[in-house]
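CHAIN AND CONFORMATION:

***
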Amino acid sequence: MSVPIQTAATPPTRRNLPVCVLDGDPNQLAHARDLLERAGFTTVGALNPGEAVEKIRAGRFRVILADCQVAGTDGLALLEKALQKDRKIHVILMSAVHSVDEAIEAIKHGAYDYLCKPLDSARLTRTLDELSDHLRKSQGVAASPGQDWRPLPLSEMRRIHIQWVLETCNGNRVRAARVLGIGRTSLYRFLKSSGKQAASARAST
């Protein structure tokens, strides 16, 4: 296990979210771990799925950052195998093949996120920070069952989903509309409406 590069500015949540990186290419594995450790995360590396499973069992890892094609195993099969072993494991898939359809399928099958190679450091750390925040809030709800907890409104969940698809499609609205199964006009209207609501919210604060 490698110790992260920690500074006074390193968020404490990153130190408490160790990541198991799985990649069959030693150079890519080293690169991913370097990005994570520079951001303040503790990492361990594995070159094949069997090695990753053993390291996860031996340590306290709740996150796997795995390449979609490693040791002849495709991403979805790897994802399902990991989730069968431990439902508390969160899998983030990465791939050099930029496929929106594969990304959507991965999310449907339980992946927390799907990242494109070469890895973008800002996107990677943002994803892990969001996951860490989600885990922290989940633990808070579990610890306080009497808390007044309310789920997100459907409109907010829809907005988050559409924004995620847009980001996956690199901002291409025509492609995003096709993936979402809606017309381009409907998507444009939704984005325009969301923009107005966000502007109104900023003006009222």
